[in-house]
Amino acid sequence: MPATTDDSGAPQRKRALVDLAPLRVSPTFARLWIGSSIQGIGSWLTLTAVGLLIYDITQSTFMVALVGGIALVPMVAAGIWGGMLADAFDRRTVAITTTILGWLSTLGLFALALTDGVLAAQGVRVDVWPLYIFTTINAVTTTMTSAARTAAIPRILPVEYVSRATALNGITMGTQVAVGPALAGIMIAGLGYPLTFLIDVILFTAGFIGIIGLPKLPPIGQVAKPGLQSLIDGVRFLRTAPNIRMSFIVDIIAMSLGRPHALFPAIGVLAIGGGSVTVGFLTAAMAIGTLLTGLFSGRVAHVHRHGVAISWAIMVYGVFTALFGLVVLGGMLGWFGETGEDFSSVSWTALILAFLALLGTGAADEVSAIFRATMLLTAVPDEMRGRTQGLFMAVVAGGPRLGDLVAGTTVALLTLWAPPLFGGVVIIALIALLLRLSPRWRAYDARNPTV
Hints:
GO molecular function: transmembrane transporter activity
Number of domains: 1
Largest sheet: 2 strands, antiparallel
Oligomer: single chain
Strand order of the largest sheet: 1-2
Number of helices: 18
Strand content: under 5%
Helix content: over 70%
Organism: Pseudoclavibacter endophyticus
Subcellular location: Cell inner membrane
Transmembrane segments: 32-55, 61-82, 94-114, 129-148, 168-191, 197-217, 263-296, 308-336, 348-371, 420-437
CATH superfamily: MFS general substrate transporter like domains
Structural class: mainly alpha
Keywords: Cell membrane, Membrane, Transmembrane, Transmembrane helix, Transport
């Protein structure tokens, strides 16, 4: 194969499979990557289990959607505040502190599930509001940890490896979302909720491995103390950074209008059948798409028009989201036969079609994520990187929860198939319009990154 150049202009041979060079170049990054991968599996296991437990208690999709809705504002605030902390203090210290708090919240969820198991034997169930509180704390601390951890990457890796590192992080996310929810569905069906949450308590400790191995990462240059002025400086920076601002906008559109996860428990009963096991398969489908994109991400260093690549990836995401909505519509109309809550009553045709549609959304979303993350880590100066990463994590973590709330509300007003079908169509239209109206976004070139 002929030699080419990567984002930095350094010679590099073209390849299709993921480039593992960042793991070899930086053992520190390798430990961080492994630790966060293991921790993330437990986090997705718990997120899936919480939704299933709330649906089991309330039989309400809207109550499941509130898991994201209640956490939304705190997560956005945590992203902003966590970003300011990452710019003002040692990023390693910030990550360790927030990880400890997140582990304690997971322990709280385990205690609640254990209590519910005891009460359920007596015909009583726990109140759901403590589940919302602990899940929100978990989401808030995860957002803050991720902001500090991600902002550290350009300090522990040469800049020419950043795009390849973000592709590796895509494999991490794909593995987490593929394994965690599937494991949750199987464990809940076989062992119950308490043991499922206990597994996350154990897996969460792996997150400390990578963080403790980080070097000290104090602020570079002028220290921006957390507070109103730091926030104003961050907002002022975004006002002068149209490309960074647009990367947030397009992701919010995709996540708020194309997020069907809160519908999965109801779909597993009403449209496809299979109950909790189907929920695990549907959630894993998107993750497998993410994982496949990461595995075949070897050419990401050769793509330079990131704005165009992100926009097209999100439009493809909208197409697959709409196709998933059509499958749900068909299931509810009986196109695939009778279904039931037990997995023996699942419609295999509907499950396979839904799985393929969601696999497509996961693959397209990861293409977008790789280039958005690379843009933030290479175009933004270090002294502002914590705050922009904080906002990025707020969008990444808060956007899906806004999507859960939008989906749950839409179902309450219309029907189960409406959010993905209509949302996918609107995503395509809005992203196409923004791409056409934003020449600077279309012209973004990774070889000369500009905010």
